[in-house]
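Q: Entry one of two.
A:
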Amino acid sequence: MPVTGEYEPSPAQWVRDQVEAYERSGGREANTLRDTGLPVVIVTTRGSRSGKVRKMALMRVEHGGQYALVASKGGAPEHPVWYHNLKAHPDEVAIQDGPEPFDVTVREVEGPEREAWWERAVAAFPPYAEYQEKTSRRIPLFVATRR
């Protein structure tokens, strides 16, 4: 079941613009992180407090049809807001990787599974390793599986 309800765009203009362009073009535009050339996906969640639909671009880390969602927040000391959305509503998440979004269920991973996904994430976006060094928190990693 798709994530439905009132959509509240990101407070950051560049995020709003990227999400709008990606969705409007079916992923043909705005499909990389700014000027890095590295691919992104659009992730839709339900707000943990507001209940509103939220959307953001995250780095594309895909393996075997599953996706890693890395809650790095650039190595900040606290988790990104969307981390709490995933924890509160793990079954109300969608990913758009191309023309059409699809529903996923997310789960936070630990142990050897986390380590394997962390390696994939760093291979896709090397700054993740630097972000982990910058912060004392262990950066959470979720795996999204198509429903």
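Q: Entry two of two.
A:
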Amino acid sequence: MVIVIGGGLLARWAVAAAKERLTYPRTGYVAYTRERSKHRRLATGLIAGEVSGLVVFLAVGHPASLAWLPALQGLLGGGVLLYGGVWLGLYRYWALAAFSVGVGLACSLAGLGDVLGSGVFFAALGLAVAVSGLSTLALYLRRTAPAAAR
């Protein structure tokens, strides 16, 4: 958990710093007012609660079914990526969603178990997200120039 939370915070800081240094000088910065939706938070909480309940039920009632945890993680991760892809209009997220489902299913079918399978799943998905993001950044940097250079 320390690595996941710490890595998430570090990644958030690194992305913000990269945007400030690379993106904003090229395309500018626009601050939009963000509306907070109670319904979105409620739906997210309900889904997280249901998934957590399902995992606890499987762990207590059917320990052998934990081998399917990577597949469940793949489905959940794919759903989040697909939602983000539709909401943001990013087609690469659609491909990442399909990748998430496929890798999660492959880890479960390969018999890696819950711990190793989850580790392999998250490592593969993390690598795919990083490669996708870095490829998009490289393409963006090739196609744009800082405003001062124009």
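A: Comment on entry two: The helical segments are 2-27, 38-61, 69-88, 91-109, 114-143. The first helix runs from residue 2 to 27.
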